[in-house]
Amino acid sequence: MADWHKALSHPPKEGTMVEVEIQGQKLFVTLNNGQLYCAENRCPHEDIELTLGCLKGNRVKCSLHGYSFDLATGDSSEEDVDNMQTYPVKQENNEIYIEV
């Protein structure tokens, strides 16, 4: 069963990605257009950290091959590339929690 874990003591700045580690899993949290998102900090294609890439619209773009993934659903821009794993994220008071 998944549990909520405190990840950050405050939300990230708009348009930035912050790496966090929860139960040995490297994840990232981002605030994009006022919405919080959380996903595994690993490109499903080549295992590179997605925080090395950039945000483009509602997608995170991998710095290695330019594949992108939807922040809300994890859907890949390429049919032959696995989707990115996403996680529920919430803000309570000023703290950020991730369900893992």
Tell me about this structure.
This protein is mainly beta and 100 residues long. The chain contains no helices and 10 strands. A 4-stranded antiparallel beta sheet has the order 2-3-4-8, with no helix packed on it. Strands 1-10-9 form a 3-stranded antiparallel beta sheet, with no helix packed on it. The chain is globular and about 40 Å long. The chain starts with a strand and ends with a strand. The model has no long low-confidence stretch (mean pLDDT 96).
Shape: globular
Fraction of residues in helix? under 10%
Which H/E pattern describes the elements?
EEEEEEEEEE
Gyration radius over CA? 13 Å
Task: State the total count of DSSP E strands.
Answer: 10
Count of helices? 0
* Biggest sheet architecture: 4 strands, antiparallel
Distance between the termini: 8 Å
Q: Helix/strand-derived class?
A: mainly beta
Give unreliable regions as ranges: none
Q: Please report which band the strand proportion falls in: under 5%, 5-15%, 15-25%, 25-35%, 35-45% or over 45%.
A: over 45%
Major beta sheet, strand line-up: 2-3-4-8
What number is the mean pLDDT? 96
Outline of the structure:
It is built from no helices and ten strands. It has strands at residues 4-8, 17-22, 25-32, 35-40, 54-56, 59-61, 68-70, 86-87, 89-92, 95-99. The relative contact order is 0.26.
